[in-house]
């Protein structure tokens, strides 16, 4: 698969006042279904990564991003898909979290993230969080 087919994804690592991270479980029918993830979604044409992040977190989690900064960028090649994860740390937001797409979700301390199965592309995000 050519790199032009790589899916560009804006990912939000949302941290609450207690230092817990928001994660949700992918629906079983989706790519990497049944695994936990940090919320986000595809960056659309003519949209900045920050705009995509804000839009996706509003649509998925009912949150309005007030403050976020780039955390890391990850490229990962699955056998059936290539992804570019543009990962942002969200440290200020408004709204009451609810998973708008019906997935399970929870707030988890960083040290407990290893207890959840994440897609391989998400492992470097966990490593960055655990080194902070």
From TrEMBL:
Q: Where is the Nudix hydrolase domain?
A: 4-132
Its Enzyme Commission number(s) read 3.6.1.55
Q: Which InterPro entries match?
A: Mutator_MutT, MutT-like, MutY_C, Nudix_hydrolase, NUDIX_hydrolase-like_dom_sf, NUDIX_hydrolase_CS, NUDIX_hydrolase_dom
* Catalytic function, reaction form: 8-oxo-dGTP + H2O = 8-oxo-dGMP + diphosphate + H(+); 8-oxo-GTP + H2O = 8-oxo-GMP + diphosphate + H(+)
Q: Which gene encodes it?
A: mutT
Q: Which family does it belong to?
A: Belongs to the Nudix hydrolase family.
**Top-rank lineage group of the source organism:** Bacteria
For activity, the cofactor(s) needed are: Mg(2+)
Name of protein? 8-oxo-dGTP diphosphatase
Determine if 4Fe-4S is one of this entry's keywords.
Answer: no
Q: Which SUPFAM superfamilies match?
A: Nudix
**Keyword annotations from UniProtKB, A to Z:** DNA damage, DNA repair, DNA replication, Hydrolase, Magnesium, Metal-binding, Mutator protein
- Give any Pfam family that matches: NUDIX_4
Q: What enzyme category does the UniProt record give?
A: hydrolase
């Amino acid at each position: 698969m050519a790199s032009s087919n790589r899916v560009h994804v804006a990912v939000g690592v949302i941290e609450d006042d207690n230092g817990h991270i928001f994660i949700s479980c992918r629906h079983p029918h989706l790519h990497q279904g049944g695994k936990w993830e940090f919320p986000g979604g595809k960056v659309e044409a003519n949209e900045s990564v920050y705009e995509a992040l804000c839009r996706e977190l509003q649509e998925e989690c009912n949150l309005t991003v007030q403050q976020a900064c780039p955390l890391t960028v990850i490229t990962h090649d699955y056998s059936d898909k290539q992804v570019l994860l543009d990962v942002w740390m969200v440290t200020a937001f408004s709204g009451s979290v609810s998973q708008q797409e019906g997935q399970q979700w929870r707030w988890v301390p960083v040290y407990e993230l290893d207890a959840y199965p994440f897609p391989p592309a998400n492992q470097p995000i966990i490593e960055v969080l655990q080194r902070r």
